[in-house]
């Protein structure tokens, strides 16, 4: 005990004899054998009894008696006693012969047997306790889920009450008083008020007369019918009415700001209502935002409700269907917002282009816009900046207009999606270029980068594919065509029906029909409006109606005129005339060549000449063709390569030059790059020696 001095400890060798000792006639022991267990029952004096009174299966510790510790098992407790060696408290059992002695071996066997039995009892009791705890936890969890479902439903009801109050404020206060002022005072138009509040009256009636009463009734019956899925499933389809309100929300905000500045009466009515207590010190714009946010709130609460709803609940099917309908209503509102933004963008384009109002059509969708460079057919070096507007049904090709006010662009060409084609142009002179071909015009355009070019091609192709899917007549016409009709060449099918791709002037040096060289005085360049070839005035002195140009007369070449007018062309002269070695088109040879590129020849005086187009045909690998331009229909000259040796680059010479040597004849060429020089040297060496021609085809 606290405050007592510890007594000298009893020696351990007296332990076996002490278990039958007494405490001065007041502490006695009684030993008896019960179920092969030795039980020591102690009778304590009143002074120390409080140190031994413990509950079942606990350890009783007598404080203040010092060491050593002795375990005394019993049917009720197992005590750890600290005994002290005091003659006044402990006497040897020999002085008390009336107390029966206990054999020590039997005593310790009983202790071991009791400990085993006690451990088994504890395990059984522990398992029983754990089972009881688990059952209690499951019951508590079930009750918690039910409470959560009720709380979510109650939150839905509470927020619905607050929302209906907000709708009442918008419809019965703001809208009603502004409408009354507009009708009586006439300081601002009545239509402006109706545009601002849109269909707020319909929304208010739906929630106040249908949604809220049904939800309130169901919550009152929650004890007998705990579900809300059926209520939501019945009323959720009407939430699509929010699309009209959401679509006009931005316009409503603009109208409020405009008329707050224009009309003092309009401002006075709104500010007067906002000062009232029902507004909660919030503006009209803040209150009008509430319907926009309401449907996402329904969706969030219903998802939370479903997450707590058991899998086998009766309300789960209705709740899941309700969530699907509400999600569709939310998408409908988002689509309405997107449509409104798209329409606003169309109005911006309308203002930039200065077009008539038919341009602003809700069915039109702006897919892409941006600046590009227009490749000129006349000049080989000049590119002009242009602007494209790609819609779902057309492409507008525009020219920037530099003006401080009014339209910013002038529409030069409108290309409809019907019949449009787009493809990449692999042109070394104009990288990142692509072709857009429509029925009325064909454009060669250049983007700023490869990624931008690919983005334009992808956007145009997607618009073309989408337009073809919508045009069922197009599919029917293609599927009904016979096999023979489908084998007709594309040129024969579309000649005169769509604008051709014009061949650039710098790519040819002679007429592509009669093969006579051009000059600036008597043989100038002209384009055939049917096939796009560059021809002279003699070969283009014909006119015929072209379908793509609304059947107006256009200048065409003789061959196209013959095809379009249905006349038979006289070929006697061409049949009598044998085609010479030079009568091969550069495009034909370049398309199936071993090597082709621009080269420059160096004369005997070391002067580098103009660029010319050189090509080695696969069909005639022993001949090097020389053209003035890549699209010429007749070669300027040819060089037989058999017997020539390729001379490697000498020190001090141009790094891109190489020579062809045969006897005393030396031809010097300058390539566009060192890479091209190496390819030419390798190709000519193999051709001249008849080695390894076919591997070069790769």
UniProtKB/TrEMBL annotation:
Its main location: other. Residues 505-565 form the FYVE-type domain. Residues 365-465, 592-689 form the PH domain. InterPro entries: DBL_dom_sf, DH_dom, FYVE_RhoGEF_PH, PH-like_dom_sf, PH_domain, SOS1_NGEF_PH, Znf_FYVE, Znf_FYVE-rel. Gene3D superfamilies: Dbl homology (DH) domain (1.20.900.10), Pleckstrin-homology domain (PH domain)/Phosphotyrosine-binding domain (PTB) (2.30.29.30), Zinc/RING finger domain, C3HC4 (zinc finger) (3.30.40.10). GO terms for molecular function: guanyl-nucleotide exchange factor activity; zinc ion binding. It is found in: Cell projection; Cytoplasm, Cytoskeleton. One of its GO terms (cellular component) is cell projection. GO terms for biological process: cytoskeleton organization; filopodium assembly. Residues 148-336 form the DH domain. SUPFAM superfamilies: DBL homology domain (DH-domain), FYVE/PHD zinc finger, PH domain-like. This is FGD2 protein. The lineage of its organism: Eukaryota, Metazoa, Chordata, Craniata, Vertebrata.
């Amino acid at each position: 005990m606290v405050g007592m001095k510890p007594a000298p400890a009893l020696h351990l060798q007296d332990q076996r004899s002490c278990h039958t000792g007494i405490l001065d006639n007041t502490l006695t022991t009684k030993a008896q054998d019960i179920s092969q267990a030795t039980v020591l029952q102690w009778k304590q004096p009143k002074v120390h009894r409080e140190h031994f009174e413990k509950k079942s299966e606990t350890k009783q510790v007598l404080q203040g008696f010092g060491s050593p510790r002795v375990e005394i098992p019993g049917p009720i407790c197992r005590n750890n006693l600290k005994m002290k060696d005091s003659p006044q408290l402990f006497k040897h059992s020999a002085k008390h012969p009336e107390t029966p002695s206990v054999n020590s071996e039997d005593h310790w066997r009983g202790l071991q047997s009791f400990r085993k039995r006690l451990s088994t009892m504890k395990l059984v009791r522990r398992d029983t306790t754990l089972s009881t705890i688990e059952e209690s936890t499951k019951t508590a969890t079930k009750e918690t889920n039910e409470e959560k479902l009720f709380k979510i439903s109650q939150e839905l009801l509470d927020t619905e009450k607050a929302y209906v109050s907000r709708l009442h404020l918008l419809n019965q206060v703001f809208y009603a008083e502004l409408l009354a002022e507009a009708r009586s005072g006439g300081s601002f138009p009545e239509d402006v008020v109706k545009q601002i509040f849109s269909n707020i009256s319909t929304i208010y009636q739906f929630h106040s007369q249908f949604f809220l009463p049904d939800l309130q009734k169901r919550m009152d019956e929650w004890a007998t019918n705990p579900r809300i899925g059926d209520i939501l499933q019945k009323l959720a389809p009407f939430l699509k009415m929010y699309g009209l309100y959401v679509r006009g929300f931005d316009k409503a905000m603009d109208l409020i700001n405009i008329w707050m500045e224009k009309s003092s009466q309009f401002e006075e009515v709104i500010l007067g209502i906002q000062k009232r207590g029902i507004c909660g010190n919030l503006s009209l714009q803040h209150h009008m935002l509430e319907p926009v946010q309401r449907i996402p709130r329904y969706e969030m609460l219903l998802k939370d409700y479903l997450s707590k709803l058991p899998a086998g609940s009766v309300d789960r099917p209705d709740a899941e269907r309700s969530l699907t309908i509400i999600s569709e209503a939310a998408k409908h509102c988002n689509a309405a917002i997107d449509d409104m933004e798209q329409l606003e963008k169309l109005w911006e384009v309308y203002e930039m282009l200065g077009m008539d109002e038919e341009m602003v059509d809700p069915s039109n969708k702006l897919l892409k816009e941006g600046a590009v460079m227009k490749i000129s057919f006349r000049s080989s070096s000049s590119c002009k900046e242009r602007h494209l507007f790609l819609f779902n049904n057309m492409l507008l090709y525009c020219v920037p207009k530099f003006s401080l006010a009014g339209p910013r662009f002038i529409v030069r060409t409108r290309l409809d999606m019907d019949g449009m084609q787009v493809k990449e142009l692999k042109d070394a002179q104009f990288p990142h270029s692509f072709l857009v071909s429509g029925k009325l015009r064909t454009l060669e355009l250049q983007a700023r980068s490869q990624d931008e070019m690919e983005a334009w091609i992808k956007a145009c192709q997607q618009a073309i594919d989408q337009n073809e899917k919508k045009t069922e007549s197009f599919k029917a016409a293609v599927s009904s065509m016979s096999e023979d009709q489908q084998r007709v060449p594309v040129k024969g099918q579309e000649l005169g029906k769509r604008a051709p791709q014009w061949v650039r002037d710098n790519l040819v040096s002679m007429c592509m029909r009669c093969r006579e060289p051009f000059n600036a005085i008597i043989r100038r360049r002209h384009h055939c409006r049917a096939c796009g070839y560059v021809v002279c005035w003699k070969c283009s002195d014909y006119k015929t109606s072209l379908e793509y140009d609304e059947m107006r007369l256009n200048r065409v070449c003789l061959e196209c005129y013959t095809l379009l007018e249905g006349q038979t062309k006289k070929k006697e002269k061409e049949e009598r005339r044998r085609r010479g070695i030079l009568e091969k088109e550069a495009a034909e040879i370049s398309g199936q060549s071993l090597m082709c590129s621009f080269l420059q020849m160096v004369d005997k005086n070391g002067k580098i000449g103009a660029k010319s187009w050189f090509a080695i045909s696969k069909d005639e690998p022993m001949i090097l063709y020389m053209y003035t331009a890549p699209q010429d229909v007749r070669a300027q000259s040819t060089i037989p390569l058999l017997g020539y040796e390729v001379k490697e680059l000498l020190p001090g010479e141009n790094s891109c030059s190489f020579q062809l040597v045969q006897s005393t004849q030396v031809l010097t060429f300058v390539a566009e790059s060192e890479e091209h020089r190496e390819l030419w040297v390798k190709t000519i060496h193999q051709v001249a020696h008849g080695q390894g021609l076919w591997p070069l085809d790769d």
